[in-house]
Amino acid sequence: MLIPKLCHICGLEMKPTFRHPLWCETCQRYFAPQPRCSRCGLQMQGAGLVCGLCLVNPPPWSNLYCAADYVYPLSPLIHKIKIAKQLSLLAPLMSLLHQAIPQSCNHLITVPMLWHKQLWRGFNLSETMAYQLQALEPSIAIHTKTFRKHRHTPAQKSLNRQARLLNVRNAFSLYQPPQVTEVAIIDDVVTTGATVRHLSELLLEVGVKKIDIYCLCRTPK
Ligand SMILES: [Zn+2]
Ligand SMILES: [Zn+2]
To answer: Per the similarity annotation, which family is this (predicted)?
Structure first.
């Protein structure tokens, strides 16, 4: 009780009266909800509206919800979770994501990893996120075998937009099609949206009517 808690973002001592598990009152401002396009999740003026790009060229999913943008300070936090395996940092971020979702879908579909990558990392963040969301919304069912990941694909980070789309098309296939018409796909970071676009198209092909995307963070344009 006597050891001062330090903010995970700025490293300064936290006021004991401010009771967030990760960040201080000053850093809280990074996590204020922003108005976003309800389709692609990018920031825009006016909440709950659809941006011009999505009006002209709507994505195959219905809504995308995220906790925040994939910029400082969320990007280093995600890095700590994935690379340094500091899973204790995840719950406060999942609580932000939960607050951003107006009504949770009852069927959550996770994004698979290659088995050896999962073995190396020790967890699949999409699945861990799904179980944490389920803890907040016990009516949620989790589907971890809907998709299968096939072969090693070059890291999406290293590719341009066009190459990412091609890359992802060969990477996933449908393994256990969902028996429901409304689902949400849960993933950690949505950058170009190539992965969730492909996964959504696979679901639409087998009769799923409504797909939402839940992600921890969205990479701004
Ligand atoms: Zn701070
Ligand atoms: Zn949009």
So the answer is: Belongs to the ComF/GntX family.
